[in-house]
Amino acid sequence: MYKTILTLLATVALAVSAIPAPADEVTDAALAESDTLLAKGDLKGCLAVLDKAIETVTTDKKVRLDREVGPLYLARGLTREKALKWAEALADFRKAIELLPDDPDPYYHAAMIAATSADAKLRNGKLAVMYGEKAAGLAEKRYGAAAKAAFDSFQLVEAADLLIKYMQVRESLGAAYAEDGQFKKAVEHQLKSIDAAKVWVSVFNSDALLKQRQRITELLEGAEEQLKLYRESKPLRSR
Predict the structure, then answer these.
(1) Contacts of 170 by beta carbon, 8 Å cutoff, 6+ apart
(2) What pLDDT digit, counting tens, does each position of 113-122 carry?
(3) 50: which residues sit within 8 A by CB, 6+ positions away?
(4) Where are the domains of the chain?
């Protein structure tokens, strides 16, 4: 009887161990591991982790694709972008857009590739504008409005971090207009972004916000360089 119980318990334990982890746990673990590898500069290892996670999660019939798989495609797109695998990165961003239609980030990255890629075959001004306008609109809701709300609540660090995200995402629309030959719109867009950034830089003058202010200043300088290009009727190109 005792041996029978032990055998039964062992069988149950084996069966439980064979149950795959929930998709959200797989996603969270993969994203955490890939972030660690990315910080070390291990792009190959990072891609391997994300490839495996996507394969694992997409075979789970119970998965909510927008929540579990979308962030994995976005993360893999970012990694492929760092590895200069532009076509593969764009494919991942498009998949992330399909799964995360209310997230401005994949639209932003897709717009930047379509607008600025060194590979002429990947550039498409009309597509870049479509992605860029969507990114800017969603960023206004997710980052712009949230930054203002945080500022009004005196959560200045959070407000500054959100503003940085907002400025980064808005960058894509100016680049998209330029690639599409709409340089007047590109200039107007850049001027609005620059004017807003200058106001925020003057507001975030606390020593506690030094890191954020430096980052906003960097983005502002980049925006001014892009403005110079657009005024000369030149599109932005990735380095």
Answers:
(1) 135, 136, 139, 189, 193
(2) 999 999 999 9
(3) 30, 34, 72, 75, 76, 79
(4) 21-84, 102-239
Structure tokens at 46: 């990072």
Q: Could you give the angle at the alpha carbon of 238 between the alpha carbons of 232 and 239, nearest 5°?
A: 105
pTM for the whole structure: 0.85
Residue type, 114: A
DSSP-assigned letters across all residues of 55-95: HHHHT-TT--HHHHTHHHHHHHHHHHHHTT-HHHHHHHHHH
CB-based contacts of 144: which residues, under 8 Å, 6+ apart? Answer: 162, 163, 166
pLDDT, one tens digit per residue, over 104-142 is 999 999 999 999 999 999 999 999 999 999 999 999 989
Cβ partners under 8 Å of residue 179, min gap 6 = 114, 115, 116, 123, 124, 125, 128, 129, 235, 236
Record the tokens describing residue 184, joined without a space. 């007047």
